[in-house]
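Structure tokens please, single chain.
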Amino acid sequence: MNLLAGVRAAELLERDAELRALGDALAGARRGRGSAVLVEGHAGTGKSRLLDEAAARAELADMQVLRARGEDAEREFAFGVALQLFEHRVRSAEPDERARLLSGAAGLAGPVLGGAATVEDVQGVFSIIYGLYWLTQGLADGRPLLLVVDDAQWADLPSLRLLAYLSHRLDDLPTALVVAYRPGDDPSGTTAVSAPAPRGARTLALGPLS
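Here you go.
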């Protein structure tokens, strides 16, 4: 069953194909076959609305939904978008669950998630990315997971590297990753597509609405 079918879908005009693609990603995650979707479009094309619909349908299907948004003023803050995704979920967990989530390799991300260290304190960027990958796996082991990132054109580079790392390691995880970005709106030239691209992600290029 396509999880974005029904009455709510009718509220989004001219986006039937995109809704089907996002619904397929959610359904795949629920079956244990994760995937990544990149939603590309200029301002006013409805990227955020599509992400809202995906999140709403995932919650109705009893999936976990973690969301983040890139902010131009915060793009120099390493792993800022990644912390938006994961920090509250980890901190709000019961002690036993938190210990499970941060066990093993996932513990490499623990100091950053807890605000107790900087990137330089925990063996560099890749160690944190590796830890966050195993944290994602631990979360998805509980129940299917949707990760949503909006305005990725303003995300910090370490978080973009995390998204790229996750995107081609989702095949056997009950996890859908949906990333939206606005092309041509990044003065540094470092966007979700140009460096680094979420490899293997399906791209939905939104044209203007009529």
